[in-house]
Model the fold of this input.
Amino acid sequence: RISFGTKHQHAQNTISNGGSSVGLKIESNVNLAPYTTLRAGGAASQFVFARSTDELAEAAIFADRSGLPLFVLGAGSNVLPADEGITGLVVVNGAKNFQFDPVTGEATVDSGPALQDLFLKCAQNGLGGMEHAVGIPGSVGGALVSNAGAYRSNLSKHLLELEIAFEEKRQWVS
Done:
């Protein structure tokens, strides 16, 4: 989840984050091709489709506790999973909520939406500054990893804070 200024039904098991589980459904050997823009690539040995920031955090904590490598997949652009597959937990980021505060002029957004959608939602809510995001492919989370930008601006110029899951806990950092 980021603060800015200006269907898998065949579960194999359920994991828990301490005592407050949201009940992640872990699948095995899921083909990743449908989750990439190139529609190519191998299978994930373990797979979760996270629909919320709570599920994203729970998946990260589970991977950490289990000693599994963690791979977060957003919009699937700029990535090509190996044909041999990915060993570890692949989490598709489906967390796509937006919140806007008209008083402060701030947006709080999950990391899963397309960066283009963040620009559009900001513009619709009277928030400027994200114009550089027009036409940049990928998700908000992916754009953060690469500090995506264009036209002499980038995402970090607008980032106030972000929530992370690290060492089995969640925290906001700025």
About this structure: The chain has three helices and twelve strands. The radius of gyration is 17 Å. The first strand starts at residue 2 and ends at 4.
